[in-house]
Amino acid sequence: MDASLKIVIVDENPIRAAILEEGLREAGHVNVVRLDDTSHLLARVYAIDPDVILIDLENPSRDVLEQMFQVSRAVRRPVAMFVDQSDAASIEAAVDAGVSAYIVDGLRKERVQNILDLCISRFNAFARLQDELDRTKSALEERKVIDRAKGILMSAKNLSEDAAYALLRKTAMNENKKIAEVAQSVITAAELFK
Amino acid sequence: MSGEKLRIGFIPLADAAALIVAVDKGFAAAEGLDVELVREVSWANIRDKLNVGLFDAAHLIAPVAIASSLGLGHIKVPIIAPIVLGTNGNGITVSPALLVAMAAAADGDIVDPAVSARALARVVAARKAKSEEPLTFGMTFPFSTHNYQLRFWMAAGGVDPDEDVRLVVLPPPYMVESLANRHVDGFCVGAPWNSVAVDFGVGCIAQFGCDIVARAAEKILAVRGRWAQDNPDVVARLVRAHRRAADFIDDAANRDEVAALLATPSRIEVAPEVIRRTFEGRIKVAPGGMTRTSTRYLVVGRNGAARPDPAQAAWLYAQMVRWGQAPLSPALLAAAKAVFRPDLYDAALAVPDAKPVGEPTDHIGAFAGPAFDPDDVAAHLAAWQVRGR
Question: B162 to chain A nearest CA, in Å?
């Protein structure tokens, strides 16, 4: 393991950045710095002087890092994107996962391949997590809507909770809709009749 | 809706208008194209997603297409432009304090770019004499018309952009804030950000991009060369849809509708009034309300502007060589010119564009230096004292 490499993570999403940092530390990288605010990004990156920079693609400041490709007075150590001509699969996997990696020019690729691989897998894992969270959230929302509709039906039609739910379910089946959709219509209708 | 499914990436800027109008007015659908427009946050993302095929086409800043085709600073992926989406549209905005200093140092009408560039050189020299920090200017990308127009302008006045000032890359949405916070003293960016800075009272537009270069290809519809080869019919339909969109935008009767389409949150999300002023070329240049007009401010399709012109690609390549981003070679010049494809544009249209009227004879119209010869980049470079190393 190449623990000597200094790695900077630029990600405004603190949870994802933490997941990535943890992964890198587990893999033995002790020199990891997280930047979650991108003001004066270039100056801060120069101050840290990293070997590897990882940045998420939702970050407009990615273009700021592209300046480091240039050989000019403003750039102390030229940086390259972590890809080469033979490596289309690697860039595709990274772009698809939503992350990009830059390395100091001259650093041998084999030394950082595992960092990029880990980065891609953690970004993908985070995306799955986010997706699950979104689905759980919307399931919770649906639950709430159904509960409110049940309550409306129970008091309006003097039904038991089970009967109210059965009515929603039957209507949904008849109309070929989701229960939550029927429940939402019940709430909307009830509000109109208020 | 059925049709050829395409994903097209864009950056929220006024010159994405043709893309947005082609989709939202149904011109793309009329060509059997089912286009999903994807808003992006950086040119690097657009370039990478186009390169790996996550986008079929993209709104792209012309020099990035050339850099990608030549393999400069990044992997080499040939990109071509079958149609130009925007010509001109940039501006150089400076802080009110810098404008005051430049006005005091000016030896003539400061609207003249030769005068303003010399004035800037005097301000820069005076700061150096007092050991003050050098001025900092923002631009959008190393391979950008903004970088080259800013450099061309200041170098003509005697300012070395690599030695006498600092040039930094800033994402367009951060430009105005950076000027307000005094992180930069000025910037060169596309519409509508110069106007936004003026409306916020933090900047004055010192120069329109078209003052520096009268006719500058700005954004292209970019596709991979390989993809264009495999999908010639789709390329032709894209050209027709965007040509129609350009005509719609250029028709003054449609201004309100175009401004309203572009103003929506999923598109550019800027006040319709600002977009309207941009397409009218009626630009407020100072917070006090002073307005300058130019019919060249931002041109979408008018007067042959949508037709790719290899001379434009040659000029951009010449700037890359001038500032040390690319070596000078006949092979690279030819490869750069081959990015702009008037042949594909002409082949797609039933009625060819009329010859442009009243345009610069060298196709560029820069305010300084000799006429540009697209076959002789060395002569262009020899004309300058200030150049990169």
Answer: 7
